[in-house]
Amino acid sequence: MRFSLFVHMERWDESVSHRELFENLTELTLLAEAGGFSTVWIGEHHAMEYTISPSPMPLLAYLAGQTSTIRLGAGTIIAPFWNPIRVAGECALLDVISNGRMEVGLARGAYQIEFDRMMPGLAASDGGKYLRELVPAVRNLWQGDYAHDGQIWQFPTSTSVPKPVQKPTPPMWIAARDPDSHDFAVAHGCNVMVTPLMKGDEEVVALRDKFETAVANHPEVPRPQLMVLRHTHIHSPADPDGWRPAAAAISRFYRTFDAWFGNSTTPVNGFLDPSPESKFAGRPEFELESLHRTAMIGTPDEVIERLHTYRDLGVDEYSFWIDNSMSHDEKRISLELFIKEVVPAFQ
After folding, report:
1. Residue 149: other Cβ atoms inside 10 A
2. CA distances from residue 220 to 107, 189, 345 in whole angstroms, order as listed
3. Could you tell me which residue ranges the Luciferase-like domain spans (predicted)?
4. 47-106 pLDDT, tens digit each
5. Model-level pTM greater than 0.90?
6. How far lies 292's CA from each of 6, 207, 242, in Å?
């Protein structure tokens, strides 16, 4: 099982500049590369300070010039906000810049608050049809001349310029949760990325089972890869309560996610306050003790034990989701501990 880093610039107030956040993201990526991580993943989000990434492409192109081995993942491009020609061309250009280190993740999108600004009138729940049309169109554009007459996009004969370095195509990943998404991904030769969010490892098993069902239903397709993405924080065994600050920070992250996902409040200059803790009375998944069990929080030995379980389930890639509302220094120390104490157990 290999490891990757899922990272964004996160801004919780105006005390930290965007330039400093950019430098922090770069430092974490270089640490991950030196520590043997396979990939750095950066997603796409709009007009929200707590997840800053209007496009993963500029960040990944910059990182391509700062690194030499780590792969560069767009995780994920939001299908309804793009045109297939643009996806194909920009991804291929990143592949050229990085000399064949590009990976592309694609998703239907989740936040209605983003759809209201980027695609007014479109429900986020309808994003799946864009994803299903985008994936084969991009792959065909990478191969050569291709004309498209779909439900959503129509264009005359065109092609991806430039073409990717990787042949036949760069790896493609689909963010999947329901069985139909797993089936679509596998049927189209795409790898699958899943996140159990605030659920326990039983959710990892359930998502793995959906993936395995899709694999069994498509014996004609070479077996794709499965990635699990999870909030991760490592603390020293010398501090038995070291999990508490991480659990509190991740609770803040999820309460902020809830505020954005609820789409009931107008953001102020890109900020929304986290939903109040009182809203989640009777919701045990928001309690710190629960987050200690569900998020990947623990000492190196505790995390190694859980990750052995993931490996035995058939997980090919574990992605260290470092976004959690903690300070950069706290994130760096956690990542360094993971590299020093956890990674060697899987080499």
Report:
1. 8
2. 24, 10, 35
3. 1-317
4. 999 999 999 999 999 999 999 999 999 999 999 999 999 999 999 999 999 999 999 999
5. yes
6. 20, 21, 10
